[in-house]
Design brief:
Elements: E1 3-9, H1 18-37, E2 43-49, E3 53-59, H2 63-73, E4 79-82
Antiparallel strand pairs: 1-3, 1-4, 2-3
Length: about 100
């Protein structure tokens, strides 16, 4: 299944409280649950909170599914990009070649 990186511009995101983040997470989980009951396959993998943005990684069949999740949850989705590949420190290990 394709993996997507979503950029959400949320002024002050880095100052959200634990309760704020819990509430946002619960809302997202509820939207995902409802979408999956409708037969849409969407999965939240991880999110990263920075000063004025939240970057999320989701698995979904297409970008429209990500945008539907954002609309239903009333979350911004300022950019939705399909992740083409990934690297980590082990990618540079010459023993793997």
């Amino acid at each position: 299944m394709p993996k997507f990186l979503i950029e959400r511009q949320i002024p002050g995101a880095g100052k959200l409280t634990a309760a704020d983040l819990q509430s946002i997470s619960a809302k997202s989980n509820g939207v995902i649950h409802g979408m999956n009951l409708e037969g849409r396959d969407v999965q939240w993998v991880q999110s990263y909170v920075v000063d004025d943005k939240i970057f999320c990684v989701y698995n979904a069949p297409d970008a429209d599914t990500i945008r539907t999740h954002a609309m239903k949850g009333e979350f911004p989705a300022n950019a939705v990009m399909e992740i083409r590949n990934g690297i980590d420190p082990t990618t540079g290990d010459s023993k793997l070649a």
